[in-house]
């Protein structure tokens, strides 16, 4: 029987979009969680994806909005954000068997930004908005 819940953290991606996030202000939980999973979660993190219960994709929605979103000329064009997520999923699904086993049902991100539902809805990722 497994004694501890294990999380596999993908190593793909480059800062600032991946492996980094805001650690101050309103969206700080996103950056703090990424930082903890990268540097301090020895007891719950595994480097063996076969032993993992869930898989963490360490990209920052806040930084995606900051660096990829261009409000002009089309303020509702989220194509660059959607493309980043699609490229990330494609990369990990080609390199590892984990995404393909469940079509991503056991994969997660941590996102505080309210835009997450606009561009992740194309994938089978569960997005639970807060009720307030």
Description:
The protein is an alpha/beta fold and 132 residues long. The protein has one domain. The chain has five helices and four strands. The protein has a four-stranded parallel β-sheet, with no helix packed on it. The C terminus is likely disordered.
Give a quick summary of the entry:
The protein is α/β, with parallel strands linked by helices and 132 residues long. The protein has helices at 28-39, 61-68, 79-95, 98-102, 116-120; strands at residues 7-9, 45-46, 54-56, 107-108.
Gyration radius, to the nearest Å? 15 Å
- Shape annotation: globular
**How large is the share of residues in beta strands?**
5-15%
Strand order of the largest sheet: 2-1-3-4
The string of secondary-structure elements, in order, is EHEEHHHEH
Classify the helix fraction into a percent range.
25-40%
- Distance, first to last CA: 39 Å
Low-confidence stretches: 124-132
Query: How many individual helices?
Result: 5
Our count of domains comes out at 1
Task: Report the average pLDDT across residues.
Answer: 83
DSSP strand count:
4
Largest sheet: 4 strands, parallel
The SS-based structural class is alpha/beta
Membrane topology: Single-pass type II membrane protein
Pfam families: Exostosin_GT47
Protein name: Exostosin-like
Domain Exostosin GT47: 2-117
